[in-house]
Amino acid sequence: MAESVRQMSALMRKEFLLEWRQRYALNGMLLYIVGAVFVCYLSFNARRGQLTPIVWNTLFWIILLFTAINAIAKSFVQERVGRQLYYYTLASPQQIILSKILYNTVLMLALALLGFSVYAFVLGNPVDDIPLYILTLILGAIGFAASLTLVSGIASKAENPATLMAVLSFPIILPLLLMLLKISKNALDGLDRSVSWKEIGTVLAIDAIVLTLSWLLFPFLWRS
């Protein structure tokens, strides 16, 4: 168990080092968030009254979704065949997929919190229940990271990974996104938290199912 944790820590450290060396990718994601928020600000600045809380919430999750796709799509696509073969001799497939999911979760959570801060600062913050909204961001980061990492691994085996990833991720991300929108809307309106327990349970179930599928199916994908 200790050896497995040590190997996963080394794999996550490798992901952080690669991201730090290729800072243009991280800078590009940050620029995308700030640029998208600024475009929303310019679009609704002349007519502030039209930016209702529902529109505010929907726009934010659309920005977050495309940020997640841009951030996580490269998880396996950027790995060369020789490097993958080297990983195959060092660690188990489960350790590789879990380390990538954990890294993408940390990255996605950082981007989500940063995006929420910038978005709320520029366009105002109509959220009544901030802790519940932050919980929604955490659940969304885990769900996006787990789903898109697995789909990235599948798409990397095809000739056109970008198209295949868009096709495969849609049926997985859509129900997750609908639940996240409903929970965040409840937090926006300041409703009692008991109203959101069912949706939170559904999101947790989706996250658990995707993580279990990643654990069970990725070894077969990795050996191919």
From TrEMBL:
Biological process, per Gene Ontology: cytochrome complex assembly
Transmembrane segments: 24-44, 56-77, 101-124, 130-151, 163-183, 203-222
Molecular function in Gene Ontology: heme transmembrane transporter activity
GO cellular component: membrane
Keyword annotations of the record: Membrane, Transmembrane, Transmembrane helix
UniProt subcellular location: Membrane
Topology within the bilayer: Multi-pass membrane protein
Primary localization class, coarse: membrane
Transmembrane is among the record's keywords: yes
Keyword Transmembrane helix assigned: yes
Family, per entry: Belongs to the CcmB/CycW/HelB family.
Name of the protein: ABC transporter permease
